[in-house]
Amino acid sequence: MAKAQRSAFAVIGLAAALGLAAAAVLTAAPARADPCRAPLPRQGSTFAGDVRYIGDGDSLCVGPGPDPATWIEVRLADFYAPELHEEGGRAARDVLIRLTGGRRLVCLAEHRSYDRIVALCRLAGRPLGDLLRSAGDPEGGNGYRR
């Protein structure tokens, strides 16, 4: 094989390797997109904070201030929204944003799920799941049990 052909194959191989590396970084990005970084509270404990970030229709971050290192990642225990990519997913997130964005929640930690705490949260003393259903938020999605 000629030297020029070997060089061309080397360049193509390098380009393919860089393309795979870029794809891996972009694929991993959604998993790192969530900014909540505070340690999770213990099961049975109560915690509170303002809603600082909303990931989808049933997950959010609460914290006392603007530093993401103080934000606790919460999965709502009493509401199951469709995933963002599913029908109704973006609408569910929009309702959660409208109801809770910047407002204070008081939550009771139930258990861990992956890297977040599943909790029952209250807004102005009312269960957040009930408020979401009353607002017509779409409930459902993959894994939802009626």
Structural account:
This protein is of the alpha+beta class and 146 residues long. The chain folds into two domains: 1-33; 46-134, OB fold (Dihydrolipoamide Acetyltransferase, E2P) (Beta Barrel). It is 34% helix and 28% strand. The protein is built from three helices and six strands, in the order H-E-E-E-H-E-E-E-H. The protein has helices at 3-32, 89-100, 128-134; strands spanning 46-56, 59-63, 72-76, 104-113, 116-123, 126-127. The protein has a five-stranded mixed barrel with strand order 1-2-3-5-4. A hairpin with a 2-residue loop joins strand 1 and strand 2. The protein is globular and about 30 Å long. The N and C termini lie far apart (65 Å). Residues 8-32 have low confidence and may be disordered.
SSE run: HEEEHEEEH
Which stretches of 5+ consecutive residues score pLDDT under 50?
Answer: 8-32
Helical content (DSSP H or I, runs of 4+): 25-40%
CATH class of the largest domain equals: Mainly Beta
CATH topology term of the largest domain: OB fold (Dihydrolipoamide Acetyltransferase, E2P)
Order of strands, main sheet, comes to 1-2-3-5-4
% residues in beta strands: 25-35%
**Nearest-angstrom radius of gyration?**
21 Å
Backbone structural class: alpha+beta
What is the architecture of the largest domain at the second tier of CATH? Beta Barrel
Domains counted in the coordinates: how many?
Answer: 2
